[in-house]
Design brief:
This protein is mainly β and about 400 residues long. The chain contains 6 helices and 21 strands. It has a single domain, classed as monomeric porin ompg (Porin), CATH 2.40.160.40.
Length: about 400
């Protein structure tokens, strides 16, 4: 929808909005380009963000609501956390991201959580079809929801979550078309297995494996139902191996695989004319299965592929996945160092970056920090920093 507006905030700010709200996958060549409200995919906490965005098998604090709500089941007490990040700082467009989360354990029932996610997309000037000023507006995305995790056995837990999503990109009329905020809902289903401690050489170790099927829900629309877009349903599968090196030192290795479960088909009245092409998205309950097929993507511009200058490439379901790998070192559960690597296929978004992070714990207070070092020059995510504050009332 953003392409119908003249947003006088500079070319870089406009590009940032388009990057976050685009709906044509062959234009964006990325997983995030095939759905709306992609802010739901932003990794909220600085801890896992510092580990290459790997967290589905960790999920041992309130941020489990995002990574794997089944992880809530293994937690006790009450905890709240907040994360702040200036988003896409390379654009200098004043975008920012906020995440507030909390969890509370109820004996005999399980652990409940709640969250609020907010992404501010800037203030823009509106222009009508005749380029006349029609005021200004602020764009933002908002989601809030509840989660729940419970133990099936001492080592196996299940979890779920439900969120309401409100996307206010623009409340203006463009010609005869009225645009309104989009509203929809999504839910999660998750599982997490934590092994008992076992000996690995001379150290004690434990192994976790988790899966989270997130953001399943109806499409979101800003004008008429024919232009409704899917929300970013995705599956995250993770594993983590922890080593208690001695009384004071602990090392954890984590690995996540993530795939968007959104499937679009294209139909064209005239295959030689891209303006006659339309995209239709499967409902989420079909896309969970249909999105695992091989797809063709254009590694250049769409026009270059249609002119025969560039050949389409076929990507298998595995090649459509992103990979996050990271490590975390703790000293006496007081100080942590983290590092990681995030990979996305060069023909399917090409997000590749290193992550770094650190954490401090003292009494009931925890502070975490993460930093993205993009491997591509002038990448939108370059120099993105997250700061998280956590308060654990059980200590």
């Amino acid at each position: 929808m953003t392409h119908i507006l003249n947003l006088r905030v500079g070319a870089l700010a406009l590009l940032a909005v388009l990057l976050l709200t685009a709906t044509q996958p062959r234009e964006a060549h990325a997983q995030i380009g095939s759905s709306a409200v992609v802010f739901l995919m932003i990794e909220p906490d600085s801890r896992s963000a510092g580990m290459g965005n790997a967290g589905a098998a960790l999920s041992d604090n309130a941020n489990a609501i995002f990574w794997n709500p089944a992880g809530l089941a293994f937690q006790r007490g009450t905890e709240i956390a907040v994360t702040h990040s200036n988003w896409l700082p390379e654009f200098n467009a004043g975008l920012f991201y906020e995440y507030l989360v909390g969890k509370h354990h109820v004996d005999g029932l399980g652990t409940f959580g709640a969250h609020v996610t907010y992404l501010f997309l800037g203030e823009h000037e509106c222009r009508d079809a005749q380029n006349n000023a029609c005021g200004s507006f602020k764009s933002y995305d908002l989601a809030t929801g509840l989660s729940y995790g419970f133990n099936v056995t001492d080592n196996l837990a299940l979890g779920t979550g439900l969120r309401v999503i409100y996307s206010n990109l623009a409340q203006v009329d463009v010609g005869a078309q009225e645009t309104n905020p989009g509203v929809t809902a999504g839910f999660d289903l998750a599982a997490l297995y934590r092994s008992p401690s076992f000996s690995l050489g001379s150290v004690d170790a434990s192994y976790n494996v988790g899966v989270n099927l997130a953001n399943m829900g109806p499409k979101i629309q800003y004008s008429d139902s024919e232009q409704a877009d899917p929300i970013p349903t995705n599956i995250r599968i993770g594993q983590a191996l922890s080593f208690d090196l001695d009384e004071f030192n602990q090392l954890t290795l984590a690995l996540d695989f993530n795939k968007m479960l959104v499937n679009q088909t294209q139909s064209c009245e005239d295959p030689s004319d891209p303006t006659t092409c339309t995209f239709e998205s499967d409902p989420f309950y079909e896309a969970i299965f249909s999105s695992w097929s091989t797809i063709d993507v254009c590694p250049g511009t769409r026009q270059s592929c249609e002119d025969g200058e560039t050949a389409y490439k076929s990507l298998s379901a595995i090649e459509q996945m992103t990979i996050g790998a990271g490590a975390e070192y703790w000293y006496n559960q007081l100080f942590a160092l983290r590092g990681g690597y995030f990979y996305e296929n060069p023909n399917f978004g090409d997000r590749q970056f290193l992550t770094f992070g650190a954490g401090l714990r003292y009494n009931i207070v925890g502070v975490d920090f993460s930093y993205i070092y993009a491997l591509e020059e002038n990448h939108p995510l370059s120099n993105t920093m997250r700061f998280s504050l956590l308060i654990d009332f059980q200590k």
